[in-house]
Amino acid sequence: MSTVRRDLLHRYGEAPEGETPDVALFAQLAARGSCRRFKPEPVLPALIDTLCALALASPSKSDLQQRDIVIIADAAIRGSINTLLADQEWIKAAPHFIVFLGNNRRQRQIHEWRGIPFANDHLDAFFNASVDAGIALSAFVIAAEAAGLGCCPVSVIRNHSAEISTLLGLPDHVFAVAGLGFGWPSQRPHMSLRLPLSATVHRNRYTECAKAVVDGYDARRNGVFPYRSQRGVARFGTSPTYGWSEDKARQYADPERADFGAFVRRIGFNLR
Ligand SMILES: Cc1cc2nc3c(=O)[nH]c(=O)nc-3n(C[C@H](O)[C@H](O)[C@H](O)COP(=O)(O)O)c2cc1C
Known about the structure:
Largest sheet: 4 strands, antiparallel
Number of strands: 4
Shape: globular
Bound molecules: flavin mononucleotide
Distance between the termini: 51 Å
CATH superfamily of the largest domain: NADH Oxidase
Strand order of the largest sheet: 1-2-4-3
Strand content: 5-15%
CATH architecture of the largest domain: 3-Layer(aba) Sandwich
Order of helices and strands: HHHEHHEHHEHEHHHHH
């Protein structure tokens, strides 16, 4: 059996039929995991620039190119980001940190410069820029991991959207979607198990995911990498069947970034 098929079987508990083509990138993606432990050695600036170039070569809605990247090279700015994100200790030790931005400002400027009205001041303007930024982040991660680097996205920067905007000098209609910590990994990232493909890949029409499928995933995942502790024990007690679904339900039993919509409106987006 190919290593790709073996890794897919491990991750999903099932794998696509037939032999998997022998493509190096397939093996990389099948086995990948987020990395939060790094060697101290820096990544050459030229390689970081190349990864940004590769990331921004990814698809972009209507070629509008509504995403940018900020490379944090200034120690004072990095220190301020580390302080804001102090809850996540690994971030401080990540040798490099970059921020993926959604940028709908340039499009609006183009309308001003060309004297043509902007007729898309609605939710889709925000959504397109966010998706474009996410695609660039994904491409950066794939390219970085192919070069042997380890990466982990950081959405907790959006817990501090206003402060991050001030630190990075972001104007209206430009916003941080996610940060990314990266460097040379000091240990092989853990491969996390995913929901079965039969629940997440649909054929022609959406099929509802049964509770039994999620229960089965919880059990399979616990068999490989059980949770070491439970969230919210004071509120929910100790669960004998604690697994992924209980953990995610408890996580989202508390509001997270409930003020983000207000922030997005404040920087000029009309989300109607
Ligand atoms: C948009 C996005 C934001 C994320 N934000 C954080 C974060 O703030 N902190 C963190 O430690 N991991 C973060 N992650 C990493 C996820 O926790 C990780 O991808 C998930 O647990 C699955 O693990 P894997 O990537 O190793 O498969 C983020 C991932 C994505 C895609």
